[in-house]
């Protein structure tokens, strides 16, 4: 199937139109027309090869909402016209202990990325959601629940699940004390989801510039990390801190904020971090952890939870041809809080 998208052709050049082939349907495949695609920081890092594993051309995008246009003959869960979604992975071995537990993101053989991955059968590079069509095996296709705003829901597929999974892993429930560091695409979802689970949520930020935003998102308060008195008063306060800061930084000042056995979980920065002091870690039996996206079952659970509680990301809709400007604005953190591409702005190729 011929389709169109926007691809990076080079780490330094702007994204530009790209015509390419999606694979023919296998028995367990679902084909969809993409309606909306969120714009994640990983898209930008991949377009620029910041992590060293990009190929070119590469079509980013892993916050995908679409409508089923055809199905393979073995597909049982979806039918034509269903609203569906795809997140950060499109395949895994399905056999290992992690896959069997529904933790495909931790597959022993590695999951297959929606982009910057290689098809398990053909070894062809995968291409993401900045495109008109997608083909995916049904096990990695999510169902969009009735009533969830399709245009705004796209960022749930990465920003949503990336923050939902640690909230569930560390058993956040009514009364849990949760801190969120950084108030961008991931951070604003961490606040909304933790509030939805009944937690008492504090945003930790360098200044009080985002205080009104934090409160509006449902946080109980904003803690200014530059205010040493306020930080000292908040010692031993949190059961869980979700650190969404997407760049190298020092976590030492945040560790004393954790209660005994509390965990600071990193979900933003991929790569080296500043050295940190182990004293507060050892003395409080505190933990530092990382967490990557979440499994398929957990992602469906998160979508259903968001539909039930009417939790949606705050989005700014853009056209496909505005993506380069959106990348520039994202680098300056000039977005509240996620760009979503309206794929109706991209014309389908004449041959489809
Ligand atoms: Zn992402
Ligand atoms: Zn596996």
TrEMBL record:
Residues 13-341 form the Enoyl reductase (ER) domain. Its cofactor is Zn(2+). Signal peptide: none annotated. Coiled coil: none annotated. The keyword Metal-binding applies. GO terms for molecular function: alcohol dehydrogenase (NADP+) activity; zinc ion binding. Gene3D superfamilies: Medium-chain alcohol dehydrogenases, catalytic domain, NAD(P)-binding Rossmann-like Domain. It comes from the Bacteria. InterPro entries: ADH-like_C, ADH-like_N, ADH_Zn_CS, CAD-like, ER, GroES-like_sf, NAD(P)-bd_dom_sf. The keyword Transferase does not apply. Keywords: Metal-binding, Oxidoreductase, Zinc. PANTHER family: ALDEHYDE REDUCTASE. Belongs to the zinc-containing alcohol dehydrogenase family. This is Zn-dependent alcohol dehydrogenase. It comes from Rahnella aquatilis (strain ATCC 33071 / DSM 4594 / JCM 1683 / NBRC 105701 / NCIMB 13365 / CIP 78.65).
């Amino acid at each position: 199937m011929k389709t169109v998208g926007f691809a990076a052709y080079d780490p330094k050049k702007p994204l530009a139109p790209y015509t390419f082939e999606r694979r023919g349907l296998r028995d367990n495949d679902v084909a969809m027309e993409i309606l909306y695609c969120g714009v994640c920081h990983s898209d930008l890092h991949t377009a620029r090869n910041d992590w060293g594993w990009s190929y070119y051309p590469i079509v980013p995008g892993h916050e995908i909402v679409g409508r089923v246009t055809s199905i393979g003959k073995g597909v049982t869960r979806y039918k034509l016209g269903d609203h569906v979604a795809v997140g950060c992975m499109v395949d895994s071995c399905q056999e290992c202990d992690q896959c069997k537990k529904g933790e495909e993101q931790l597959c022993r053989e590695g999951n297959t990325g929606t982009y910057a991955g290689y098809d398990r059968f053909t070894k062809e590079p995968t291409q993401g959601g900045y495109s008109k069509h997608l083909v995916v095996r049904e096990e990695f296709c999510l169902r969009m629940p009735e009533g969830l705003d399709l245009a705004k829901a796209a960022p749930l597929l990465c920003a949503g699940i990336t923050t939902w999974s640690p909230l569930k892993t560390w058993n956040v429930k009514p009364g849990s004390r949760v801190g969120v560091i950084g108030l961008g695409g991931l951070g604003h979802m961490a606040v909304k989801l933790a509030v939805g689970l009944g937690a008492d949520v504090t945003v930790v930020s360098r200044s009080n510039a985002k205080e009104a935003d934090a409160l509006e998102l449902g946080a109980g308060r904003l803690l200014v990390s530059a205010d040493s008195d306020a930080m000292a008063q908040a010692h031993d306060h949190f059961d869980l801190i979700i650190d969404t800061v997407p760049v190298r930084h020092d976590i030492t000042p945040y560790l004393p904020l954790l209660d005994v056995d509390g965990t600071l979980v990193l979900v933003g920065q991929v790569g080296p971090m500043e050295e940190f002091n182990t004293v507060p870690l050892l003395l409080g039996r505190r933990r530092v952890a990382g967490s990557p996206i979440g499994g398929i079952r957990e992602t469906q659970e998160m979508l259903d939870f968001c539909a039930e509680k009417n939790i949606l990301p705050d989005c700014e809709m853009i056209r496909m041809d505005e993506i380069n400007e959106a990348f520039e604005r994202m680098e300056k953190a000039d977005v509240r809080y996620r760009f979503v591409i309206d794929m109706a702005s991209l014309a389908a190729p004449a041959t489809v």
